[in-house]
Amino acid sequence: MPKPIVALPADIREFEGTVWHATPNQYVKAALKVADVMTFIIPAFEEGNDTDAILDRVDGILVSGSATNVHPSLYGREATEADGPFDIARDSTSLPLIRRAIERGIPMLAICRGLQELNVALGGTLASEIHDQPGMWDHRKPNVPERDHMYAIRQPVFVREGTCIARHLGLSGEVQINSLHRQAIAETAPRLTVEATAEDGTIEAVSVIDAKGFAVGVQWHPEYWAETDAPSRALFKAFGDAVRDYAATRGAGTRPAKLAAAAG
Ligand SMILES: N[C@@H](CCC(=O)NCCCC(=O)O)C(=O)O
Protein backbone atom coordinates (compact mmCIF):
# COMPACT_ATOMS: atom_id res chain seq x y z
CA MET A 1 0.00 0.00 0.00
CA PRO A 2 1.38 3.46 -0.85
CA LYS A 3 2.31 5.59 2.15
CA PRO A 4 -0.83 7.42 3.28
CA ILE A 5 -1.14 11.19 3.14
CA VAL A 6 -2.59 13.64 5.65
CA ALA A 7 -3.64 17.24 4.96
CA LEU A 8 -2.26 19.99 7.19
CA PRO A 9 -3.69 23.53 6.84
CA ALA A 10 -0.86 26.08 6.55
CA ASP A 11 -0.36 29.27 8.50
CA ILE A 12 0.01 32.59 6.70
CA ARG A 13 3.43 34.09 7.46
CA GLU A 14 5.09 37.20 6.07
CA PHE A 15 8.87 37.40 5.74
CA GLU A 16 11.45 38.23 3.06
CA GLY A 17 8.96 40.76 1.68
CA THR A 18 6.24 38.30 0.72
CA VAL A 19 3.45 36.06 2.06
CA TRP A 20 4.18 32.39 2.74
CA HIS A 21 1.91 29.40 3.40
CA ALA A 22 3.96 27.68 6.09
CA THR A 23 4.11 25.17 8.93
CA PRO A 24 6.90 24.36 11.39
CA ASN A 25 9.01 21.26 10.64
CA GLN A 26 8.08 19.60 13.97
CA TYR A 27 4.58 18.65 12.73
CA VAL A 28 5.52 17.16 9.36
CA LYS A 29 8.60 15.45 10.88
CA ALA A 30 6.53 13.72 13.59
CA ALA A 31 3.98 12.70 10.95
CA LEU A 32 6.67 11.11 8.77
CA LYS A 33 9.07 9.71 11.39
CA VAL A 34 6.56 8.43 13.95
CA ALA A 35 3.12 8.19 12.33
CA ASP A 36 4.82 7.04 9.09
CA VAL A 37 2.53 9.18 6.94
CA MET A 38 3.27 11.96 4.45
CA THR A 39 1.86 15.46 4.84
CA PHE A 40 0.36 17.68 2.15
CA ILE A 41 0.43 21.26 3.40
CA ILE A 42 -2.79 22.97 2.33
CA PRO A 43 -2.45 26.67 1.35
CA ALA A 44 -4.59 28.88 3.58
CA PHE A 45 -7.18 30.96 1.74
CA GLU A 46 -10.24 32.83 3.02
CA GLU A 47 -12.04 31.35 0.01
CA GLY A 48 -11.29 29.10 -2.92
CA ASN A 49 -10.22 25.87 -1.21
CA ASP A 50 -12.54 22.96 -2.13
CA THR A 51 -12.74 21.04 1.16
CA ASP A 52 -14.14 17.81 -0.30
CA ALA A 53 -11.66 17.86 -3.18
CA ILE A 54 -8.86 17.98 -0.57
CA LEU A 55 -10.41 15.27 1.61
CA ASP A 56 -11.06 13.03 -1.41
CA ARG A 57 -7.29 12.85 -1.85
CA VAL A 58 -6.02 12.30 1.71
CA ASP A 59 -6.30 9.72 4.47
CA GLY A 60 -6.30 12.04 7.49
CA ILE A 61 -5.90 15.60 8.71
CA LEU A 62 -3.33 16.98 11.11
CA VAL A 63 -4.25 20.42 12.49
CA SER A 64 -1.19 22.15 13.90
CA GLY A 65 -0.51 24.74 16.54
CA SER A 66 0.20 28.38 15.76
CA ALA A 67 1.03 31.60 17.57
CA THR A 68 -2.12 33.12 16.02
CA ASN A 69 -5.61 32.84 17.51
CA VAL A 70 -8.98 31.83 16.08
CA HIS A 71 -10.93 34.98 15.22
CA PRO A 72 -13.53 35.63 17.99
CA SER A 73 -16.25 36.37 15.43
CA LEU A 74 -16.23 32.63 14.72
CA TYR A 75 -17.49 31.98 18.23
CA GLY A 76 -19.84 34.94 18.49
CA ARG A 77 -17.53 37.39 20.25
CA GLU A 78 -16.22 40.88 19.43
CA ALA A 79 -12.49 40.89 18.69
CA THR A 80 -10.32 42.66 21.28
CA GLU A 81 -6.58 43.39 21.32
CA ALA A 82 -6.07 40.45 23.67
CA ASP A 83 -7.53 38.03 21.13
CA GLY A 84 -4.92 38.60 18.44
CA PRO A 85 -2.83 38.04 16.41
CA PHE A 86 -5.24 36.52 13.86
CA ASP A 87 -4.92 34.32 10.75
CA ILE A 88 -8.33 34.44 9.08
CA ALA A 89 -7.13 32.51 6.03
CA ARG A 90 -6.04 29.68 8.32
CA ASP A 91 -9.41 29.77 10.15
CA SER A 92 -11.25 29.67 6.81
CA THR A 93 -9.24 26.63 5.70
CA SER A 94 -9.11 24.67 8.96
CA LEU A 95 -12.65 24.86 10.25
CA PRO A 96 -14.36 23.44 7.13
CA LEU A 97 -11.70 20.70 6.91
CA ILE A 98 -12.32 19.75 10.55
CA ARG A 99 -16.12 19.68 10.22
CA ARG A 100 -16.08 17.69 6.98
CA ALA A 101 -13.41 15.22 8.13
CA ILE A 102 -15.56 14.42 11.16
CA GLU A 103 -18.66 13.97 8.95
CA ARG A 104 -16.73 11.66 6.59
CA GLY A 105 -14.95 9.69 9.35
CA ILE A 106 -11.50 10.80 8.20
CA PRO A 107 -8.90 10.51 11.02
CA MET A 108 -8.06 13.84 12.67
CA LEU A 109 -5.40 14.84 15.18
CA ALA A 110 -5.76 18.47 16.35
CA ILE A 111 -2.91 20.10 18.30
CA CYS A 112 -3.03 23.27 20.41
CA ARG A 113 -4.57 25.87 18.06
CA GLY A 114 -5.98 22.83 16.29
CA LEU A 115 -7.88 21.78 19.45
CA GLN A 116 -9.21 25.33 19.75
CA GLU A 117 -10.31 25.27 16.09
CA LEU A 118 -11.98 21.89 16.70
CA ASN A 119 -13.93 23.35 19.62
CA VAL A 120 -14.99 26.44 17.66
CA ALA A 121 -15.80 24.42 14.52
CA LEU A 122 -18.28 22.37 16.57
CA GLY A 123 -19.88 25.34 18.35
CA GLY A 124 -17.71 25.97 21.40
CA THR A 125 -15.99 29.14 22.60
CA LEU A 126 -12.50 30.18 23.77
CA ALA A 127 -11.10 32.24 26.63
CA SER A 128 -8.09 34.54 26.09
CA GLU A 129 -5.15 35.37 28.39
CA ILE A 130 -6.15 32.57 30.74
CA HIS A 131 -3.09 33.15 32.95
CA ASP A 132 -4.66 36.46 34.08
CA GLN A 133 -7.50 34.59 35.78
CA PRO A 134 -7.13 33.86 39.52
CA GLY A 135 -5.68 30.42 40.29
CA MET A 136 -4.63 29.73 36.73
CA TRP A 137 -1.19 28.51 35.78
CA ASP A 138 0.92 30.29 33.20
CA HIS A 139 0.52 28.04 30.14
CA ARG A 140 2.29 30.48 27.84
CA LYS A 141 5.32 29.71 25.72
CA PRO A 142 8.37 30.10 28.02
CA ASN A 143 10.29 33.27 27.18
CA VAL A 144 13.57 31.52 26.38
CA PRO A 145 15.74 31.54 23.23
CA GLU A 146 16.12 27.79 22.75
CA ARG A 147 13.19 26.04 21.02
CA ASP A 148 13.81 22.80 22.97
CA HIS A 149 13.39 24.82 26.18
CA MET A 150 10.21 26.54 24.83
CA TYR A 151 8.71 23.09 24.23
CA ALA A 152 10.13 21.57 27.41
CA ILE A 153 7.85 19.02 29.08
CA ARG A 154 6.98 20.80 32.33
CA GLN A 155 3.40 20.40 33.53
CA PRO A 156 1.19 17.48 34.64
CA VAL A 157 -2.24 16.86 33.17
CA PHE A 158 -4.71 14.20 34.23
CA VAL A 159 -6.04 11.81 31.58
CA ARG A 160 -9.39 10.28 32.37
CA GLU A 161 -9.54 6.48 32.41
CA GLY A 162 -11.34 4.73 29.56
CA THR A 163 -11.12 7.70 27.19
CA CYS A 164 -10.01 7.80 23.55
CA ILE A 165 -6.93 9.81 24.46
CA ALA A 166 -6.04 7.35 27.25
CA ARG A 167 -6.20 4.55 24.69
CA HIS A 168 -4.08 6.46 22.17
CA LEU A 169 -1.50 7.61 24.75
CA GLY A 170 -1.37 4.12 26.29
CA LEU A 171 -2.03 5.50 29.78
CA SER A 172 -4.45 7.31 32.09
CA GLY A 173 -3.86 9.42 35.19
CA GLU A 174 -0.98 11.90 35.31
CA VAL A 175 1.09 12.62 32.24
CA GLN A 176 3.71 15.32 31.85
CA ILE A 177 3.29 17.71 28.92
CA ASN A 178 4.64 20.89 27.38
CA SER A 179 2.54 24.03 27.26
CA LEU A 180 2.60 27.00 24.86
CA HIS A 181 -0.80 28.68 24.81
CA ARG A 182 -2.57 31.84 26.03
CA GLN A 183 -6.08 30.69 25.15
CA ALA A 184 -8.13 27.66 26.15
CA ILE A 185 -11.57 26.14 25.72
CA ALA A 186 -14.20 28.19 27.60
CA GLU A 187 -17.49 26.52 26.56
CA THR A 188 -16.93 22.99 25.30
CA ALA A 189 -18.68 22.23 22.01
CA PRO A 190 -21.71 19.93 22.46
CA ARG A 191 -20.12 17.18 20.38
CA LEU A 192 -16.86 17.10 22.35
CA THR A 193 -16.08 15.23 25.52
CA VAL A 194 -13.32 16.41 27.86
CA GLU A 195 -10.70 13.69 28.31
CA ALA A 196 -7.84 15.41 30.14
CA THR A 197 -7.48 18.49 32.32
CA ALA A 198 -4.73 20.41 34.09
CA GLU A 199 -4.79 20.96 37.87
CA ASP A 200 -6.09 24.51 37.27
CA GLY A 201 -9.04 23.11 35.28
CA THR A 202 -7.71 23.95 31.82
CA ILE A 203 -9.09 21.51 29.25
CA GLU A 204 -6.11 19.66 27.80
CA ALA A 205 -7.66 16.96 25.60
CA VAL A 206 -11.01 16.28 23.94
CA SER A 207 -12.50 13.71 21.63
CA VAL A 208 -15.47 13.87 19.27
CA ILE A 209 -18.53 12.08 20.66
CA ASP A 210 -19.70 9.26 18.37
CA ALA A 211 -16.89 9.92 15.90
CA LYS A 212 -16.67 7.40 13.06
CA GLY A 213 -12.92 7.16 13.63
CA PHE A 214 -9.87 8.74 15.27
CA ALA A 215 -10.91 12.28 16.22
CA VAL A 216 -9.02 13.84 19.13
CA GLY A 217 -7.51 17.18 20.08
CA VAL A 218 -4.79 18.01 22.58
CA GLN A 219 -3.84 21.42 23.94
CA TRP A 220 -0.18 20.41 24.33
CA HIS A 221 2.47 19.57 21.71
CA PRO A 222 3.09 15.84 21.31
CA GLU A 223 4.69 16.41 17.90
CA TYR A 224 7.71 18.15 19.37
CA TRP A 225 9.06 15.13 21.31
CA ALA A 226 7.23 12.45 19.27
CA GLU A 227 10.43 10.46 18.65
CA THR A 228 11.57 10.34 22.28
CA ASP A 229 8.64 10.91 24.67
CA ALA A 230 6.64 7.68 25.11
CA PRO A 231 3.09 9.14 25.34
CA SER A 232 3.78 11.52 22.44
CA ARG A 233 5.15 8.66 20.37
CA ALA A 234 2.17 6.44 21.19
CA LEU A 235 -0.29 9.15 20.15
CA PHE A 236 1.37 9.73 16.78
CA LYS A 237 1.64 5.99 16.13
CA ALA A 238 -2.06 5.56 16.96
CA PHE A 239 -2.86 8.40 14.56
CA GLY A 240 -0.73 6.78 11.85
CA ASP A 241 -2.46 3.43 12.37
CA ALA A 242 -5.88 5.08 12.08
CA VAL A 243 -4.76 6.83 8.88
CA ARG A 244 -3.52 3.53 7.40
CA ASP A 245 -6.78 1.78 8.31
CA TYR A 246 -8.73 4.57 6.60
CA ALA A 247 -6.46 4.47 3.55
CA ALA A 248 -6.94 0.71 3.21
CA THR A 249 -10.72 1.14 3.33
CA ARG A 250 -10.61 3.99 0.86
CA GLY A 251 -8.41 1.95 -1.43
CA ALA A 252 -10.81 -0.97 -1.26
CA GLY A 253 -13.17 0.45 -3.87
CA THR A 254 -14.84 2.98 -1.65
CA ARG A 255 -13.29 5.95 -3.43
CA PRO A 256 -15.45 9.06 -3.33
CA ALA A 257 -17.65 9.47 -6.37
CA LYS A 258 -15.71 12.52 -7.63
CA LEU A 259 -12.42 10.61 -7.87
CA ALA A 260 -14.00 7.46 -9.26
CA ALA A 261 -15.71 9.51 -12.00
CA ALA A 262 -12.46 11.33 -12.78
CA ALA A 263 -10.68 7.98 -13.05
CA GLY A 264 -13.24 6.90 -15.68
N1 LIG B 1 -2.43 30.84 19.73
C1 LIG B 1 -3.15 29.90 20.55
C2 LIG B 1 -2.66 28.48 20.27
C3 LIG B 1 -1.28 28.31 20.77
C4 LIG B 1 -0.43 27.37 19.94
O1 LIG B 1 -0.86 26.69 19.02
N2 LIG B 1 0.84 27.40 20.29
C5 LIG B 1 1.85 26.72 19.50
C6 LIG B 1 2.75 27.68 18.80
C7 LIG B 1 3.52 28.46 19.80
C8 LIG B 1 4.37 29.54 19.15
O2 LIG B 1 5.12 29.23 18.23
O3 LIG B 1 4.18 30.67 19.60
C9 LIG B 1 -2.97 30.21 22.03
O4 LIG B 1 -2.07 30.98 22.37
O5 LIG B 1 -3.72 29.65 22.84
From TrEMBL:
InterPro entries named in the record: Class_I_gatase-like, Peptidase_C26, PuuD-like
EC code(s) of this entry: 3.5.1.94
Pathway this chain belongs to: Amine and polyamine degradation; putrescine degradation; 4-aminobutanoate from putrescine: step 4/4
Family: Belongs to the peptidase C26 family.
Name recorded for this polypeptide: gamma-glutamyl-gamma-aminobutyrate hydrolase
Gene Ontology terms: cellular component: cytosol
Signal sequence segment: none
Reactions catalysed according to its record: 4-(gamma-L-glutamylamino)butanoate + H2O = 4-aminobutanoate + L-glutamate
GO terms classed as biological process: polyamine catabolic process
An annotated Gene Ontology molecular function: gamma-glutamyl-gamma-aminobutyrate hydrolase activity
Domain of life from the UniProt record: Bacteria
Organism (species): Pseudorhizobium banfieldiae
SUPFAM superfamilies referenced in this protein's UniProt entry, alphabetically: Class I glutamine amidotransferase-like (SSF52317)
Its biological purpose: Involved in the breakdown of putrescine via hydrolysis of the gamma-glutamyl linkage of gamma-glutamyl-gamma-aminobutyrate.
